[in-house]
Amino acid sequence: MFITRILQNDRGGQIMLAVLALVLVLVPVLNLLVPEGSFLHMPTYLVTLLGKYLTYALLAVAVDLVWGYLGILSLGHGAFFALGGYAMGMYLMRQIGDRGVYGNPELPDFMVFLSWKELPWFWQGFDMFWFAMLMALLVPGLLAFVFGWLAFRSRVTGVYLSIITQALTYALLLAFFRNEMGFGGNNGLTDFKDILGFSLQSDGTRMTLFVLSGLALAGGYLLCRYIINSKLGRIVVAIRDAESRTRFVGYRVEHYKVWVFTVSAMLAGVAGALYVPQVGIINPGEFSPLNSIEIVIWVAIGGRATLYGAVLGAILVNYAKTVFTGLMPESWIFMLGALFVLVTLYLPQGLAGLVKNIKENRWLHKFSRRAQA
Fold first, then answer.
1. Quick one: 281 exposed, middle or buried, by C-beta within 10 A (0-12, 13-18, 19+)?
2. Which among 4, 237, 245, 296 counts the fewest CB atoms within 10 Å?
3. What distance in Å separates the CA atoms of residue 344 and residue 307, rounded to the nearest whole number?
4. What's the pLDDT score for residue 366?
5. Over 70: is that where the pLDDT of 361 sits?
6. Phi, psi angle pair for 53, to nearest 5°
């Protein structure tokens, strides 16, 4: 009943969640129950790939919340995604124990290689799963809160805010590249063995991570819809459309911006935490400004301010990336840029807007024919 109320007047979201539920049931059946020799069997690597797409979709939903509904074009959400990923990566590194190359039960291999003598203070507690997950939420959320508090109180908006978010992720990229930071430097964190005692290479673990990614996407989507449907959501949209008027009637605009920006960053952190055990690595490349720009392109192609359009855009663009980087690795970035330009020019509401226009045109066509009859 609660979910029905949240999804009221959200036909696209209802369809998206129904398809997601079907996929979450169908994929485990095809992978675990159908024999490997069968035509219908789904390989485990494909399950992992789908799981990665779902984490990207959750990240796109987080960006759509702040860009589509709050009007903040964030070019730094890749940083929050990467911070969540590093929190999970630190936990997975602690789980390796004495099975590393150097056999040190306390220090990760890269610390032994760099002659570290003891575990840094900021690695303490990451041997506990619950603590790592808490950090995957709190660290991106705290960074977003501090950044947002300073930026929004100073009334930094528009392209200036976008540039600052881009500078934020670039600064983190440079910092995490340094070996003395204690996060593995250029190589990052990798060679993970297991999670909660379960091997990351087993089909069951990979399937569990896939299902968790789907559930996290559904939960993140419903949370965003709940925010948008509430009074808070209406104020947020008012800030996007007329910030000065909203401030004039008495709302503390910066408080709403900080709150939504922080929630969005925490969702991105969850996506990053689910991404890392499925791909098996996290390195400073995830902080790359290009990654954050790509996220915005997913949302623009799918359809800004629709949420389900962001999901659609993230999955389609990343599927195309998987295909075309294999066929034409050097041309993909140009194809992505061309696709973004075409969508901006001819589909300002993205693919979600295209579907809506087709439906409306059909309805108008039927109405016209009935009127003529």
1. middle
2. 4
3. 18
4. 56
5. no
6. -60, -40
Provide the H-helix boundaries in 230-288.
231-241, 243-248, 253-279
Extract the tokens encoding 302.
């799918």
The residues, ordered by sequence, that sit 6+ positions from 249 with a Cβ below 8 Å of its Cβ are none
Instruction: Please answer whether residues 275 and 85 qualify as being in contact, where contact means their C-beta atoms are separated by less than 8 angstroms.
Output: yes
Q: Which two tokens stand for residue 367?
A: 């109405």
CA distance linking residue 96 with residue 106, whole number of Å = 9
Q: How many Å apart are CA 252 and CA 238, to the nearest integer?
A: 12
Phi, psi of 281 (to 5 degrees): -160, 150
CA distance linking residue 257 with residue 127, whole number of Å: 34
Q: Are 261 and 66 in contact (CB under 8 A)?
A: yes
CB 166 within 8 A of CB 295: no
Query: Which residue in 70, 228, 231 sits closest to 151, CA to CA?
Result: 70
Q: What is the pTM of this model?
A: 0.92
Q: How far apart are CA 292 and CA 271, in angstroms?
A: 14
Mean pLDDT of the 28-35 span: 89
Averaged pLDDT, 241-263: 92
Rg, C-alpha atoms of the chain: 22
Longest dimension (CA), the chain: 86
With beta carbons less than 8 A apart as the criterion, state whether 140 and 63 touch: no
Looking at residue 364, its pLDDT comes to 54
Q: Return the pLDDT at 125.
A: 92
Residue whose C-alpha is closest to residue 356's, from 309, 313, 295, 301: 309
Alpha-carbon gap, residue 76 to 83, rounded angstroms: 12
Phi/psi zone of residue 27: left (φ > 0), alpha (ψ -120 to 50 degrees), beta?
alpha
| Residue 42 DSSP one-character state | P
Q: Which residues pair with 282 in a beta bridge?
A: 189
Give the helix ranges, DSSP H, for the chain.
2-6, 11-28, 44-64, 77-96, 109-113, 129-153, 158-177, 203-229, 231-241, 243-248, 253-279, 289-302, 308-327, 332-346, 350-372
Question: Do 83 and 272 contact (CB within 8 A), yes or no?
Answer: yes
E strands, 82-177, where? Answer: none
Q: Which amino acid is at 330?
A: E
Q: Report the distance separating Cα 253 and Cα 99, nearest Å.
A: 52
